[in-house]
């Protein structure tokens, strides 16, 4: 009987943790749920020691960028708190540090200006679900 309880507790603990890859992919899904676009997950383990994955996301306005970041923070809360968040009050470029995953949520013009996509172009990109991969900005008008 005690063994079954221990197994149940272990299973419950395992369900509340995510690997770096799972966390990065979950960030992309949570962002997509808030109508984010141009979502990329880049594996940087072979080119940098700052994290294992970068998640790069665009939003169409400062409010949308803030909503995307809030959705990610809320959605990942049960798996652990974010270590640090920068830029949240302005909503132009929000950086969320999960240790093994760095999330960059940009207002689209800011993303184009800083071009993190170009900076990390040598790193391989993870395959995302088709709907997430194809999410693009509808128009500038």
Round the Cα radius of gyration to an integer and report it. Answer: 16 Å
Strand content: 15-25%
* Helix-residue proportion: 40-55%
CATH H level, superfamily name: Beta Polymerase, domain 2
Number of strands: 5
What's the arrangement of strands in the largest beta sheet?
A: 1-2-5-4-3
Overall geometry comes to: globular
CATH class: Alpha Beta
| Biggest beta sheet attributes | 5 strands, mixed
Enumerate how many helices there are, as a single number: 6
**What is the name of the CATH architecture?**
2-Layer Sandwich
Topology order in helix (H) and strand (E) letters: HHEEHEEEHHH
Q: How many distinct domains?
A: 1
CATH fold title: Beta Polymerase, domain 2
What class would the helix/strand composition place it in? Answer: alpha+beta
pLDDT average, as an integer?
88
Instruction: Give the end-to-end Cα distance, rounded to a whole number of Å.
Output: 64 Å
| Uncertain residue ranges | none
Please describe what this structure looks like.
This protein is of the alpha+beta class. It has one domain (16-133): Beta Polymerase, domain 2 (2-Layer Sandwich), CATH 3.30.460.10. Helices cover 41% and strands 21% of the residues. It has six helices and five strands. It has helices spanning 2-15, 20-33, 62-76, 108-114, 116-119, 130-133; strands spanning 37-43, 53-59, 84-86, 93-97, 101-107. It has a five-stranded mixed β-sheet. β4 (93-97) and β5 (101-107) form a beta hairpin. α2 (20-33) packs across α3 (62-76). The radius of gyration is 16 Å and the shape is globular. The chain starts with a helix and ends in an 8-residue tail after the last helix.
């Amino acid at each position: 009987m005690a063994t079954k309880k221990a197994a149940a507790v272990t299973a419950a603990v395992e369900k509340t943790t995510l690997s770096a890859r799972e966390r990065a992919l979950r960030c992309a899904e949570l962002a997509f749920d808030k109508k984010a676009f141009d979502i990329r997950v880049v594996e940087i383990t072979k080119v940098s020691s700052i994290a294992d994955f970068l998640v790069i996301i665009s939003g169409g306005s400062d409010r949308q960028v803030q909503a995307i970041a809030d959705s990610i923070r809320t959605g990942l809360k049960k798996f652990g708190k974010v270590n640090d968040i920068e830029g949240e009050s302005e909503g132009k470029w929000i950086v969320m540090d999960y240790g093994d995953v760095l999330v960059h949520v940009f207002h689209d013009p800011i993303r184009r200006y800083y071009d993190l996509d170009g900076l990390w172009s040598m790193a391989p990109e993870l395959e995302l679900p088709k709907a997430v991969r194809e999410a693009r900005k509808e128009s500038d008008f």
